[in-house]
Amino acid sequence: VVSTQSTGHRKKADLSMFRSASSEVMAILSKHATVFERASIDEAYIDITANVKRMIGLPISKTKLHKTYVAGYEGAQEEQINQWSDHVTGCDHHSYDYKITLGAVYVNMIREKILSETQFTCSAGIGANKIVAKLAAGTHKPDSQTMIPPDNIPALYQTVNFTKIRNFGGKLGSSMQQDLGIQWASELMNFSQADLVSRYGDKTGMWIYNIARGIDHEPVKHRALVKQTGCAKNFPQGIKLVSELDKWVLDLSLEMEERLAFELTDNKRIPTQFSTHMKLRDGGSTSTQMQLVKCDVDHIVASTQKCISKRLPEKDGVYSDVIFMLSICAGKFVAAPEKNNIFTMLRNREEQKTNRGKEQSNDKEDNTVPEKEITASVGPKQDKKATLSGFFATLKCNMPSESPALVTSSAAEPSSVASSSLEVSSHVPEQSSKENNKNSWNSLSDEDKNLMMKPLEGVKSRCPVCNKPVLETKLSEHLDFHTALTLQRKIESELRSQEGVLSPKRKMPQSKRSSKKQKVSSVQSRNIASFFKKK
User: Fold this and answer.
1) pLDDT of residue 411
2) What sign for the dihedral angle of Cα 519, 525, 528, 530?
3) How far is residue 412 CA from its own chain's centroid?
4) Gap between the Cα atoms of 239 and 247, Å rounded
5) What are phi and psi of 212, to 5 degrees?
6) In this structure, are strands 68-70 and 145-147 parallel, antiparallel, or unpaired?
7) Which residue in the list 43, 263, 338, 472 is annotated as catalytic?
8) In sequence order, what are the residues at sequence separation of 6 or more whose Cβ sits closer than 8 angstroms to the Cβ of residue 278?
9) What is the distance between the alpha carbons of residues 402 and 47, in angstroms, rounded to a whole number?
């Protein structure tokens, strides 16, 4: 992969071409799998159990297993395949060794299709679960694949550092390394289930015990989009000056702005949470989270600096500790508000009236022309009025009144990346980074500051239908419920009227309780109906 450096302000490597290449590869993977789970920009899991079942009975050809290795076997690639083919030839068609071989044939076909359509190469691992498949994918890179039969997992574990196992690379792995004094994955077999449970609890201890034996029950879950997006920068020499860090904060914020713009245009979603992570010389690792009100570069810079100031005080332009790594991340994505729904139209109309009134009042006070603030805001508009979005909202507005897993990681070739580059232009402030970043937080409005500093789970709005407080991230779903309920009542009412025309029945006396429910229902339907009839 070739990382390029932009000619503008940014000094950090530009990965836009890599993201474009990754999207092409992921699109092909998702078409040839029963379940597709994207893990990162260059890694994904696919469940191919159903595909393999349809291939049962086919003969195994060595020519369809080129560039395929078998974990636990030694020698050259051809020698490994010859030994494995001899073994599989005598196996029953319902044995796991035969099925995993069919999986390797199928994955090889996918890799060939990726190469022919995109000119990109990728490596892959085929195994019984996500843990072993990921380990196998990293054993023979690039442009190769490795299958790992269950009986060969102990041999693979002898060559793998246990911190390379998924979920063992963080605090849990560090704690296990200190408590157990181990280095290789195979050493986990030396500890009994009772010992691991006593050290790490029932759930974690049992999970470690199973992982040591290559057992993982976590299924491949459908997820075509990543949960969060972020960017980071390492400082090998360390940074302590505020002015020096501010330049990199601006670079990271510009890159984050591009990524969030891509998420909005291509995936129709926006983030609601922002976080920073730092590695310090004396303070270790530290993280801070806050609400993300808007996704333009000014708000991202302000959010980053506010998170840094919470964890790292500064005096006279010097931080109290040395920073060796800084990363920013946006997550908790929600569906982007629709541009043409009724709530947005009414809200924009009221905002225009308010802005027009402010401009007129300012003109009366003095003859100066107020400056226009031009922002590319793709974040959720935090307002007292809610934004209606979702399937039912769109419908209402348009109405009249045990399985083998695969891990793939794409590695784009230089010539291919150059032909598939994606150019993204970003706004670069004219002011110097030091002067611009210094007052970035103070330049925000008081409303934005208050919203950004609210607790992550505490931002609520009043539902315009039932007037109940609802979390901002759940408001769209809550409004969809009201709209669906109204549609259901309307359909039931029409059916009852039709039945009454065909076979009129004598009206039965209603109880006080049922009449009270009908009154409440009519009030709710009248309120929402009258809202949609507003001009």
Assistant:
1) 39
2) negative
3) 22
4) 11
5) -60, -20
6) parallel
7) 43
8) 285, 286, 287, 308, 311, 312, 323, 325, 326, 327
9) 10
| Span 422-451, pLDDT tens digits | 222 233 333 444 444 445 656 666 666 665
pLDDT bucket at 61, cuts 50 / 70 / 90: confident
**Three-class HEC string of 293-356:** CCCCHHHHHHHHHHHHHHHCCEECCEEEEEEEEEEEEEECCEECCCCCCHHHHHHHHHHHHHHH
Beta-strand relationship, 228-241 and 145-147: unpaired
Contacts of 13 (CB under 8 A, 6+ apart): 3, 4, 5
d(CA 195, CA 202): 10
Residue 377: pLDDT over 80: no
Spell out a b/e string for 511-523, using b for 16 or more CB atoms within 10 Å of the CB, else e: eeeeeeeeeeeee
DSSP 190: G
75-132 confidence digits (pLDDT tens):
899 999 999 998 998 888 889 999 999 999 999 999 999 999 999 999 999 999 999 9
3-state secondary structure of 16: helix
Q: Report the distance separating Cα 481 and Cα 173, nearest Å.
A: 44
Structure tokens at 301: 């810079």
User: Is 43 part of the annotated catalytic residue set?
Assistant: yes
The length of the chain, given as a count of residues: 535
Q: Which of 32, 201, 534, 319 is nearest to 526 (CA)?
A: 534
Q: Which helix (H) or strand (E) holds 253?
A: helix 242-267
- Most confident option among 305-314, 320-329, 373-382, 428-437: 320-329
Residue 114, both tokens: 């990726």
For 339-377, b where at least 16 C-beta lie within 10 A, e where not — what string?
Answer: eebbbbeebeeeeeeeeeeeeeeeeeeeeeeeeeeeeee
The distance of Cα 73 from the centroid of its chain, to the nearest Å, equals 37
In three-state secondary structure terms, 453 is helix
Is pLDDT above 70 for 332? yes
What span, in angstroms and rounded, lies between the C-alpha atoms of 297 and 254? 6
What's the pTM?
0.55
Other CB atoms within 10 Å distance of the CB of residue 89: 10
Q: Which phi and psi angles does 461 have, rounded to 5°?
A: -135, 160
Predicted confidence at residue 345, as pLDDT, reads 53
